[in-house]
Amino acid sequence: MDVLKHKCFLEELLFWTIKYEFPQKMVTFLLNMLPDQDYKIAFTKTFVQHYAFIMKTLKKSHESDTMSNRIVHISVQLFSNEELARQVTEECQLLDIMVTVLLYMMESCLIKSELQDEENSLHVVVNCGEALLKNNTYWPLVSDFINILSHQSVAKKFLEDHGLLVTWMNFVSFFQGMNLNKRELNEHVEFESQTYYAAFAAELEACAQPMWGLLSHCKVRETQEYTRNVVRYCLEALQDWFDAINFVDEPAPNQVTFHLPLHRYFAMFLSKAVKCQELDLDTILPDQEMLMKLMIHPLQIQASLSEIHSNMWVRNGLQIKGQAMTYVQSHFCNSMIDPDIYLLQVCASRLDPDYFISSVFERFKVVDLLTMASQHQNTVLDSEHERSMLEGALTFLVLLLSLRLHLGMTDDEILRAEMVAQLCMNDRTHSSLLDLIPENPNPKSGIIPGSLSFESVLSAVADFKAPVFEPGGSMQQGMYTPKAEVWDKEFDPVMVILRTVYRRDVQSAMDRYTAFLKQSGKFPGNPWPPYKKRTPLHPSYKGLIKLLHCKTLHIVLFTLLYKILMDHQNLSEHVLCMVLYLIELGLENSPEQESDEEESASGQERCHDSWFPGSNLVSNMRHFINYVRVRVPETAPEVKREPPASTSSDGLASSQSSRRKSLQRENSGTAQVFSLVAERRKKFQEIINRNTSEANQVVRPKTSMKWSAPGATPQLTTAILEVKESILSLLIKLHHKLSGKQNSYYPPWLDDVDVLIHPEIPRYSHGDGMTAVERILLKAAVQSRLNKRIIEEICRKVTPPVPPKKISSAEKKTLDKEERRQKARERQQKLLAEFASRQKSFMETAMDVESPDADIAMEVATSEQHVSEAIYDCVICGQSGPSTEDRPTGLVVLLQASSVLGQCRNSTEPKKLPTTEEEQIYPWDTCAALHDVRLTTLQRYFKDSSCLQAVSIGWEGGVYVQTCGHTLHIDCHKSYMESLRNDQVLQGFSVDKGEFTCPLCRQFANSVLPCYPGNDVERSLWQSHSNKRMQDLVQEVEDLQEQLGTFPVSISSETNLSKEMESVMKDIKSTTQKKYTDYSKSPGSPDNDFLFMYSVARTNLELELVHRGGNLCSGGASTAGKRSCLNQLFHVLAMHMRLYSIDSAYNPWRKLTQPMQDKNSELVSEELPEVPVLYRDVSSLLLIQILTMPQPLHKEHFTCIIKVLFTLLYTQALAALSVKCSAEDRMAWKESGAIKKNTSSGEKSWEVLLGHVISELSKGKIYEEGETEELTVVNPDSVECYLQQFCLPFLRITSLLQHHLFGGDLPSCQEDEEFAVLASCLGLLPSFQSAHQFTSASCLDWPVPAFDMISQWCSELASFADRNPDQVKALLIQEPKWDLPRLLQLPENYNTIFQYYHRKTCTVCTKVPKDPAVCLVCGTFVCLKGLCCKQQSYCECVLHSQNCGAGTGIFLLINASVIIIIRGHRFCLWGSVYLDAHGEEDRDLRRGKPLYICKERYKVLEQQWVSHTFDHINKRWGPHYNGL
User: Fold this and answer.
1) Closest Cα to residue 208, out of 449, 541, 404, 445?
2) d(C-alpha 252, C-alpha 469), whole Å
């Protein structure tokens, strides 16, 4: 690090730029001149010269993140150019500078390593707790280094320069063994350190990425030299490291580090050398002793993984699990676990197999468990961890022997295997697959997901499942799921185990595999993981096969099979599964076929060990073992008799046995103890002696000392077991045990010899343990005639009875499960019964039942229909009973203000969301706007109180009432609300606003609608048709309207019921904003309330009509069935409407049914006139009439009201029609009408009536204004059609009303007969005639002569026309043709929206919003969370949701592609309706994929909007505090 000397202005400039931590303006200034080539070179050299200074400033900086970004902003421009990088490397020693700077940087945070030998260790490692590592301060420098290594010419220089390599390995060794974990044995750690994040990031970025960069240049034969260099210096660094930590042959217990970058460099370069450079592996491998040392630490990590998953490290806290997961996680695995396992495979292929296998079991601490004795003492492991550690050891061996990632698979095969493993665990989205497939971390290495091979492999192994919808409303993404043949042929449990971060994923893959086998009918039961054929081994690694053919492994397998058969403890199905897998691997990979005959000779020189004659699994399988000498605690059952002459013995892992070994060798030639540890120790000694002539006598005793058994070992004695089994016989007995039947195994080749020639039978590829055993026996028979003969012999002997416990562990498990389930069921039944009886006794005491018959009475009440009271169940207290005035029952309801109806437009073409300046949306043609205009116009010319009864409001901000159908006592509800108020749990709703969730179904609600007593069943009393004359009925209706006081619940007496009705009415009023309820000119007039109340009924009827699709053709009960609350709502509204008396002089009923005498009285008065009858909305009149009648209403009166109103409606239709036709047509109709006028059916012929209307209206100045748009064709058919269409909306509303008030289903029909069907259903048609001669006029039933009535109604218009000729036509009620409410139509491609709105300025504040959003109902552009557009503490979205949707807003967030819903004071993220080509959302547009509209999702959104179900379907609501 020389002192900086500045020679020019540029250097000075850069110096101060660095000093002030790269101010953005300076950075821009310096970069802007780069196009000048000379400047570029000069600047680059200056930058390199200041590199050390940059590092020092960066370390001191407080804003290291910002500074880092700016450094990289510059350096990436300089070093990405290969030519420039090469030049600076040659002229300015760029590589030296970089490596040295990195080295210096790390040297500032080194600490002594505590690995292995804490006191005397000379090794230093980085301290992961330092800010330098924690905040990734080093990344700009590392990223520059990776950047320049991506250039071939620079990397070549690096790999040729020995000095640089030595320095770099020195740098890497700082990370070797960092973040050491020590297992806590007593107390739980107080403070969980999170330094492991820093450690993993550092190894990945500072060590692994440069390594991948270098590896990408070692792809061809010519680069062999580079690999030799790296391997050589790597080994030197490793040797130094072993010396520094004083490592001999045993790792220190209870500590593990996941960071061995030197080992991984060594492994990855070896792999490259063999795979791409055709190097002979043995020429670059070190000697045996070094290999033995190399394998220890990676093996320690594998054992620790197993310990962590066995919960042996739980006192270290959660972070240790985090480390174990990160180690195998997709971004780290190919720089961590894969090289480790590969290194172990290399070591295993070159070391003595017996030594390797015994090391594995010793590392996993299960040596003591591998004894034939039924009891043993484990000195290093608690018994509850034994089983999972044994499973871990066997699984590791299976992984070691099956994985071929670096041993011969091509890149495409690896990609395919990775993809299959991920898809088998779970269906995956395209983006999560991209994330989960490990890629080379170095972006320039070539194989990147997303490349062509990725897509082609994906389409080969997976099927795409388009995004579907669950009815619950949860949105699915587009998923990929494995094809059937992948499950059948390629499912590889080994790969799945290697790649699972969470253990549950292995189970998930097995469950899915099981489901596939069941579904495809391949296997009904619980299958075992299938055995998959492996890619052939690369010749360099053939030595790996020796592991499968070594006596130590065979002894272990034999012992475990024996233990499983004898039901010793701590064994599991998984152990058996792995044992069989290893046997099968051995049979699949047997060394060149040994001939069966010459086995005796080869066995000769090894005969001193009487376990097995040779090392070949095929022949060892049939070798019978008669007696085994075991070392057991004195209490064990085996201690009884003397050994016979020839025994094999297996006393395990305690150094006493190893000491006794030599004695026995001298005493008895036949029986000696086999001990794994002793074997390993002996092998190690041999190798050491071979390597070092003087045999390091000084160090040796230390190891044996360390491993002498702890003093407390119990007394062991030797016992002799009679075994008389071979592996083959054990397998056959296991088959019997698994099947639960004697003699269940029958050699298949006895029936069909072909089996031996074509052993690959699909029947064996999927199945459980029995299938696995059969497959193995078949393979053994195929490989050797002797085995075949022995299997047949064993099967011929009747199998001796198995030990007393006949049930295998697997079966025991299932049986246990069954028993457990049975018991659980019984327990449950008992509990439920007890619970029910307790509930009953509680009810009895709680209710003070007066008579024992009360129960019976209640049952009778529900069973007999003619009892006059409806019974309700309270979902809180569970009692059933009628709703009474003192204790009313109520329906759980949600009241919400809605402007959905106001969004109907009269065009069938839905409006598009504007995406250019031209396409603007104006709300003039919406239903709400037109109704508004009409009311305002009426109020200009007519008396206010009468205007307010001539229309309905509530198109905007109407109150919609919906229920889940559950009822509760209102007093119970009050105490429920109290308890919610005291419950401080975070709720998604506000109890103070009266919100709650239904206690039964948890549906959101905010009020309770009282049920009117005696409701429901009395309907039947009013069904009968009466034969009274029309005139009498008309009179009765009038009389009823006069008696105002006779509401069955007298209002004067304040009952609980009437109080509740008042309070719910208050709720209904407060649901919507004041501006939606006040339309009167004089504020607070009672007419306003009157209008509001019947409009609530109208809103709910109209909305139900919309939910049915706008017509009643489908018929049937109310869409929601029991969920309709219109009936109860009517009672509440009626009770309140009756409070307002209608002055009998102005009662519309009179005007409809009696000709008026004095026509002139009105004109004299000063006031504005009343609204002419023909201008009044008939549906509103209907509701006013019904709701002001005493309840319950008689059906005959209802029908009478409809008949009278229909005559008015029909006249309105004729008047509207007459205005539409031309003057000539009018004359024609007038004349033809006059001719037919005196015929008998004149009052029921539309021609006559139309003629009369025209002649009456002609008296005023109605037709004088210019021609209006004309009906195209004026022929009788089109007139009839026009009249029917005009009357239909009224008939639909009326039919719904009748359905809710009186029950009875709605008939279903074709669209063209809807009018006739509804008319007859309403009783307008005397009898339903066939359709072809049916005319709408035949439904008319005039209470008084038609022509008088019509003349009177028309005269009102004529007198109005004299004063305001321009408004007459405008106010005539036009044929209402509203389309169903729709959201705006969105463009196909999201980019269209994004480009237009992303930079659009807000109309309010004229700025470009930070978070732009657009309303999907009306297309208004708003600032989300924008403080600029805030009004009285309401942000713009919330404000708009109140103006546009009366509290409901649906906004598309432009920069995130998601939709948010605002509902009142809460909001939720709904999801996105734009998905990419793989059916996935791209929230926040992070992935930047092209997005396309998903029509199904948009339909669901629209459906939820129209049906007002946002609150019920979306679950994650939160308060927005008016801040959106």
Assistant:
1) 445
2) 56
